[in-house]
Design goal:
3-stranded antiparallel beta sheet, 0% helix, two-stranded antiparallel ribbon, mainly beta
Length: 67
């Protein structure tokens, strides 16, 4: 996930945060204090049951910013 500093002119990416393998989207709280990314982790409905990468559960990666 890229961290973009919107206070810079022009805004630009200032850091990278690894959230896991194959993130499926991201949401940020209205205050900007939290960000969450969902990792299906091979648990999607279209993944065959016998696939070597299939897992039973997805993962939610939560990031808390303290400044």
């Amino acid at each position: 996930m890229g961290v973009i500093d919107l206070t810079l002119d022009p805004p630009r990416e200032v850091d990278q945060i690894a959230v896991g393998d194959g993130p499926e989207g991201m949401a940020v709280s209205p205050t900007g204090e939290y960000a969450i990314s969902l990792l299906t982790n091979g648990s999607g409905g279209s993944v065959p049951d016998k696939a070597f990468f299939r897992q039973d559960h997805a993962i939610a990666a939560l990031l808390k910013s303290d400044g």
